[in-house]
């Protein structure tokens, strides 16, 4: 191959390369690096949103559990206060839809003869953490003659 033919080949390749570059600049669309950056940003946003969603679901579950425990404790305390006879220490389970919850009533003196300290504790028996809620009240009973 002669020097003249090599030079003509180089000139042709050079012109072809310049033509391709001009063609590429005129095309509309995204480059590969732009797509990779966009997908990375999208992945980070999706990860952050899913983490926030998981945390809010866990918080909603915790709030529901705390509300149920406190309402059951208030219900048991109201039942004790409405009873005609004095409160006595006892324990048991709630029935129906709340059978997984147990209760314990503790009655102690308060230092004043007409007041008794009543503690109601409600436990979630199925919880791994043994979650509970304690409600304390003073109950007045007149002394019998």
Automatic annotation (TrEMBL):
Q: Which GO terms describe its biological process?
A: protein secretion by the type II secretion system
Assign the protein's first listed, main location to one coarse class. membrane
Task: Give UniProt keywords alphabetically.
Answer: Cell inner membrane, Cell membrane, Membrane, Methylation, Transmembrane, Transmembrane helix
**Membrane topology listed for this record:** Single-pass membrane protein
Q: Which PROSITE patterns match?
A: PROKAR_NTER_METHYL (PS00409)
Q: Does the keyword Cell inner membrane apply?
A: yes
A family per Pfam: N_methyl
Kindly provide the name given to this protein in its UniProt entry: Hypothetical membrane protein
* Annotated source species: Syntrophus aciditrophicus (strain SB)
> What does the organism's lineage look like at the top?
Bacteria, Pseudomonadati, Thermodesulfobacteriota, Syntrophia, Syntrophales
